[in-house]
């Protein structure tokens, strides 16, 4: 690549290495267009056997002025006196620390030069056509470069599914919007997505995509195309049922009675009436306090609404709504369910999908097969793969993280508390979209799990604005600071405008509100 002298903005300074360089920048050249953190520059290695421009990313910037030594500037008066002497800007020295990223080969893949550039080598701003080449190799567009809004950033969906993805941010940082941007474009390209939605955040996407989005909930509403979330009784373990019934750990006799009754039903198709009969048999029809206590709990819990003796949401199939289908997003709304019950549902669904992937890959005809590769999105994933390991969904999600790629099952974990996510699963998510993260523990867990995230990029996380992210991993050619696109539709996780609602006064509380699916999983009439 031939550069003119007008485009040179600086030169390499001091000792260079294959991975990092220091650049002395001409302050006058960049005064009209300031050099920014994360900006891409290129270095001319001045080597006859190597003439490719090498991309570097600015990690640190420092500006000092030799005409303003600290030893004499003890008050504003000295500063004013120096200004009368002459132009202080003549003493400015601007330096930048940059990380060497590599050069683009003929296939637009990034390669790393394994030798140092010479000190004094010319440095240029990266031309826009080179950046478009670097960030234009993907299947879906996610946003613009933060340092160059004219450059659209694409990500590779193959790598998202095969190598897994993590989307991390503080509450209100833009996680839900990012998930919607990614999943909606996968949907448009004919992909299959299953979203575990603990708070019904993504249900409004049905309005934008119609029949392409299939939603399931304990509180079905067919008029809104929300189908019943149903599973067979024998899909869950005794521990799952004890969690559903909320039998205290101290209620040993109740727990023993239930386990004994459950054991009588093993390896059979059974329903609520069968369970009641088994409980009576084990209790010898004594109507004991333990029996009555269990029966009372069975009549009260909402979770039993999702259980059926014969019916279950099918893995695949064209004759009825199913979990996995090409060109379909499936939303499993778990709002209103206890966390331990949500874990049991996620365990069962994840196991069903992975088994379907194994069957499809190995052509096992006796097991239901998934019809295509699928991406499972786990919202609030710290509840399902916690760092302390205390979740029934832990084992299957770990297995998907380590083996799912071989069977066409990808994983996308989403959380506002990365420090509470199992580090083994997080380390398997090779691509990451990290929005604003402030908590030091969360930052450490991300850095410990992500080899591609440098210490310098970690420093950017607390300073990001809403919707801005660091993206890195095999799904993108270069680590990048990106302004994520705004999802054009509505989402359910948007912040409530509290003051506006209060200021409407009590008169608005008497008006009939719109029916909406709230975070408790019920359809209520609310004005907000």
Descriptive report:
Helix 8 (252-264) packs across helix 10 and helix 11 (339-362) runs parallel beside helix 12 (394-403). Strand 5 and strand 6 form a beta hairpin. This protein is elongated. It is of the alpha/beta class. The chain is built from 16 helices and 23 strands.
Essential attributes:
528 residues, alpha/beta, Elongation Factor Tu (Ef-tu), domain 3, Rossmann fold, 12-stranded mixed β-sheet, 6-stranded antiparallel beta barrel, 16 helices, 23 strands, 23% strand, elongated, disordered C terminus
Write the layout of secondary structure elements.
Blueprint: E1 8-13, E2 20-25, H1 27-30, E3 40-43, E4 54-65, H2 76-85, E5 92-104, E6 110-111, E7 122-125, H3 128-135, E8 140-145, E9 152-155, H4 157-163, E10 165-168, H5 175-188, E11 192-197, H6 206-209, E12 213-217, E13 226-228, E14 231-232, H7 238-245, H8 252-264, H9 272-282, H10 289-300, E15 307-308, E16 328-333, H11 339-362, E17 374-378, H12 394-403, E18 409-415, H13 423-428, E19 431-434, H14 440-449, H15 455-460, E20 468-472, E21 480-484, H16 498-503, E22 514-517, E23 523-526
Parallel strand pairs: 10-18, 10-19, 11-16, 11-17, 12-13, 12-16, 14-15, 17-18
Antiparallel strand pairs: 1-2, 1-7, 2-5, 3-4, 3-7, 4-5, 5-6, 8-9, 8-21, 19-20, 20-21, 22-23
Helix pairs in contact: 8-9, 8-10, 11-12
Query: What number is the mean pLDDT?
Result: 87
Percentage beta strand? 15-25%
Structural class: alpha/beta
Instruction: State the end-to-end distance.
Output: 58 Å
Q: What summary fits the major beta sheet?
A: 12 strands, mixed
Tally of distinct domains: 4
């Amino acid at each position: 690549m031939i550069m003119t002298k007008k485009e040179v903005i600086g030169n390499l300074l001091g000792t260079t290495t294959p991975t990092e360089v220091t650049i002395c920048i001409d302050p006058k050249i960049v005064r009209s267009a300031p050099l920014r953190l994360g900006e891409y520059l290129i270095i001319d290695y001045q080597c006859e056997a190597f003439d490719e421009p090498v991309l570097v990313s600015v990690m640190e910037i420092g500006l000092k002025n030799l005409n303003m030594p600290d030893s004499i500037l003890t008050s504003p008066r000295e500063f004013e006196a120096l200004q009368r002497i002459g132009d202080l800007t003549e003493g400015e020295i601007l330096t930048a620390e940059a990380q060497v990223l590599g050069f683009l080969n003929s296939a637009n893949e990034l390669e790393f030069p394994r030798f140092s550039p010479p000190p004094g080598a010319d440095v240029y701003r990266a031309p826009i056509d080179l950046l478009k080449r670097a960030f234009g190799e993907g299947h879906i567009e996610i946003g613009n470069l933060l340092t160059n809004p004219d450059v659209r950033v694409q990500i590779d969906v193959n790598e998202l599914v095969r190598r897994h993805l993590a989307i991390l941010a503080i509450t209100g940082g833009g996680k839900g919007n990012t998930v919607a941007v990614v999943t909606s474009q996968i949907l448009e390209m004919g992909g299959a997505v299953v979203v575990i939605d603990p708070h019904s955040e993504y249900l409004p996407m049905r309005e934008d995509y119609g029949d392409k989005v299939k939603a399931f909930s304990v509180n079905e509403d067919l008029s809104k195309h929300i189908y019943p979330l149903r599973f067979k009784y024998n899909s869950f373990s005794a521990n799952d049922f004890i969690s559903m019934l909320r039998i205290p750990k101290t209620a040993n006799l109740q727990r023993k009675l239930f386990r004994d009754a459950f054991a009588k039903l093993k390896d059979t198709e059974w329903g609520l009436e069968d369970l009641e009969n088994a409980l009576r048999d084990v209790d010898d029809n004594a109507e004991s306090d333990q029996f009555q206590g269990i029966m009372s709990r069975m009549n009260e819990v909402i979770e039993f609404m999702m259980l059926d003796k014969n019916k279950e949401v099918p893995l695949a199939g064209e004759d009825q709504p199913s979990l996995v289908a090409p060109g379909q997003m499936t939303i499993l709304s778990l709002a209103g369910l206890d966390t331990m019950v949500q874990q049991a549902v996620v365990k069962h669904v994840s196991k069903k999908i992975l088994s379907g992937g194994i069957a499809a890959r190995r052509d096992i005809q006796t097991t239901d097969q998934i019809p295509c590769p699928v991406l499972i999105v786990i919202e609030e994933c710290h509840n399902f793969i916690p760092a302390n390991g205390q979740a029934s969904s832990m084992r299957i999600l770990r297995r998907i993280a380590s083996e799912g790629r071989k069977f066409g099952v990808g994983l996308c974990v989403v959380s506002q508390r990365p420090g509470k996510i199992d580090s083994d699963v997080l380390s398997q998510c090779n691509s990451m979209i990290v929005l604003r993260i402030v908590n030091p523990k969360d930052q450490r867990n991300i850095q410990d799990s992500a080899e591609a995230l440098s210490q310098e990029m970690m420093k950017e996380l607390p300073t990001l604005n809403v919707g801005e992210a660091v993206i890195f991993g095999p799904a993108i050619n270069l680590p990048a600071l990106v302004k994520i696109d705004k999802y054009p539709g509505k989402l359910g996780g948007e912040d409530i405008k509290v003051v506006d609602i209060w200021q409407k006064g009590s008169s608005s509380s008497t008006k009939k509100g719109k029916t909406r699916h709230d975070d408790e999983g019920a359809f209520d009439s609310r004005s907000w």
